[in-house]
Amino acid sequence: xxxxxxxxxxxxxxxxxxxxxxxxxxxxxxxxxxxxxxxxxxxxxxxxxxxxxxxxxxxxxxxxxxxxxxxxxxxxxxxxxxxxxxxxxxxxxxxxxxxxxxxxxxxxxxxxxxxxxxxxxxxxxxxx
Length: 128
Ligand SMILES: [Zn+2]
Description:
By secondary structure, the protein is an alpha+beta fold. It has one domain: Zincin-like (2-Layer Sandwich), CATH 3.30.2010. It is built from 6 helices and 4 strands. Strands 1-2-4-3 form a 4-stranded mixed sheet, sandwiched between helices. Strand 1 (26-29) and strand 2 form a beta hairpin. Residues 1-17 have low confidence and may be disordered. Bound molecules: zinc ion. Residues 82, 86, 102, 105 line the site of zinc ion.
């Protein structure tokens, strides 16, 4: 509930509901500034290529996450967290097989997201 009031105040400061739903355009991940682009068509092409249902991609070469923002906000948030975890793992140098990396990320991502979402005081404390 506290989180809702925080979001409401953010909406006001951003000048509108739509603006607050846009993901950040850049996120610091370790030594990288990961760019976040929103292109549903690009993600859709990647979905077509992989044959699985994903709503985001991470391009390690360019340090760019591409997010499909035509899906519900909660799905976007989960997808962005998922892709950020890929960006983190690539930086660690862990040489996991793709399937193992996917399993670890799919397992951890929703819990990390829920923990951050359910504990706004913790998130505020972390950023001090
Ligand atoms: Zn993935």
